[in-house]
């Protein structure tokens, strides 16, 4: 493992504002998304998957976390679209995308995103994934490494015991769930089915991911393993284990942030993404 946390953390720390309160204790609202170049719903694996693209250049795919949606990335999209083709989407059942009765699984969700890239005729991307999005990125790195140039995986786990059980009582995390319930009601084609959606995806979270060390160690895609230093959900030793397993990976710890670093420190977050994918 190549530890560059000190360098990238230094970039983060140089721009830390004077804090009136601990910024990891709240989740700022994302600003409105920029105007897309292209948007629509792609027919993939039996669902209608919402997507949007922005800008032009080397392609970057941003994958949101569980219960979320693509618009959470608005700060990063506004920056990266200056010189990249940025692709975002709502994962199956999330946001504006539909779902089926088929059980959720990370292999299936990874297949959804690969099918979306095929639909958009994009062969290879840099992938930035947060939480479930990071897990989907790891899944693609294991199963289809030829589709990735870089993987920036924030707040991901590789086994269920990487999740801190106390997250269920965490006030910040529960505020996120409440906000996503409201967004679901506004965005979803099935706005009254949030509880059913949560139950369905919760069945996946109870048993997945469940990869062996050998499977993770086989990843050859250049990977940054990333966490906020106050992450409520993923145990720090687990993040460090992932970085240790993936040869040549970079361990990046984002200061004064939690599971929601892209919203709490958007400029620094995007700078750390650029420091990795544009190197």
TrEMBL record:
Keywords: Hydrolase, Signal. Gene3D superfamilies: alpha/beta hydrolase (3.40.50.1820). It comes from the Bacteria. Residues 59-185 form the AB hydrolase-1 domain. SUPFAM superfamilies: alpha/beta-Hydrolases. The keyword Signal applies. Residues 1-20 form the signal peptide. One of its GO terms (molecular function) is serine hydrolase activity. This is Alpha/beta fold hydrolase. It comes from Neotabrizicola shimadae.
